[in-house]
Amino acid sequence: MPSLKSIDTIFSQAVESKKMPGIVAAAVTDNGVLYEGAFGTREIGKNTPMTLDTVVWIASMTKAITATAAMQLVEKGKLSLERAASEVVAELAQAKVLEGFAPAGTPRLRAPKRPITLRHLLTHTAGYSYEIWSQDIARYQQATNTPGITTCTNAALTTPLLFDPGDRWEYGINIDWAGKMVEAASGQKLDRYFQENIFGPLGMQDTSFKLSPSQRGRLASVHQRDDKGALAPIEFALPENPEFLMGGGGLYGTARDYLAFAQMIMQGGTLKGVQVLRRETVEQMAQSHIGSLEIGVMKTAIPPLSNDVELFPGMSKKWGLSFLINTQTAPTGRSAGSLAWAGLANTYFWIDRTKRVCGIFLSQVLPFYDHTAIDLFGKFETEVYRAL
């Protein structure tokens, strides 16, 4: 193992100074583990240490797994990227575009100009958003009594589109609908499908929608950072018996589990002789599917949940079939064309198929894009590339 002692020092200082509660970070290459470490505690003020097998809410890191399931079904001819998604999930035919609000506050809606496709959903170009980054969606929810997405109720998926499918990139509930398509096309609930087709084959024993007693015993608490920078644990739990399993953000997992998934993508769909996706499918997922569209700044509408998010400022950014793609080499050393995404409680991963390295950084802190977490993640990634 190369010397990555500097990472140990940086992370140790961050948790000792109470800037972060706990951190798990790991990186692997084709040759095996490059780095793994766990620092701090699962909950600030308590003595339970963060460990490599600590379970966290991985939130939107669920999306790449749901997209992988969808692409398995595309390979089998059970789903299509191009056909109207409403042929598979009829409710998608009800989607309307929000044009604004009448003086009385009622939403003004119209039919979209074209049908939503699985490609739109996997690339966040269908028109859906999240209330966290859209004042209009938050206002719509209030005006119509529509619940938020983390209620995992079907009603939460009825929010309108902000534009016609294909017109723009806007981060939203798209992958929850893709999860519904996986269920309809496979005839299985997402948990069962994932277990049989992704988690089981990859040996991901600690990734699930519902926590087992063993996982619950290793669960890290979600923390909220206040405007003075102080951290406190908050009550956070997704519904135990949800109306739908949230393909866009419902999974809990561990660093080692997610790295197995990331390695499978890095190695072209196969890990340790087990094929999860065809090589050409991974190539397809790793290309931009949004043409001239750009990934803009995600401006927060709910500051306690997210800061403004600007990834790789000044760089053109694209979207593959559920991955962020940086078009130039990043300051950390990450190759152009790498794949990445994140989860709301400041969990991050990247997959560099050129330099053959992937890494993961897990914490449990809100708001998203926390400046301390981002700084630490950047330093970690930089040291990983130095060690290659």
Describe the model.
- This protein has 388 residues and is α+β, with helices and mostly antiparallel strands.
- It contains ten helices and 16 strands.
- The strands form five sheets. A seven-stranded antiparallel beta sheet has the order 2-1-15-14-13-12-11, with helices on both faces. The chain has a three-stranded mixed beta sheet with strand order 7-6-16, with no helix packed on it. A two-stranded antiparallel sheet has the order 3-8.
- α1 packs antiparallel against α10, α2 packs across α5 and α2 crosses α6.
- The longest helix has 17 residues.
Features:
388 residues; 18% strand; seven-stranded antiparallel β-sheet; single chain
Biggest sheet strand line-up: 2-1-15-14-13-12-11
Stretches where pLDDT falls below 50 for ≥5 residues? Answer: none
Number of strands: 16
Structural class assignment:
alpha+beta
Main beta-sheet strand count, sense and barrel state: 7 strands, antiparallel
How helix-rich are the residues, as a percent range? Answer: 25-40%
Proportion of beta-strand residues: 15-25%
**Mean of the pLDDT scores?**
97
Amino-to-carboxy terminus distance: 10 Å
Shape: globular
Number of discrete helical segments: 10
The radius of gyration is 20 Å
The ordered H/E elements are: HEEEHEEHHHHHEEEHEEHEEEEEEH
Quick structural overview:
The protein contains ten helices and 16 strands. With 388 residues, the chain is of the alpha+beta class.
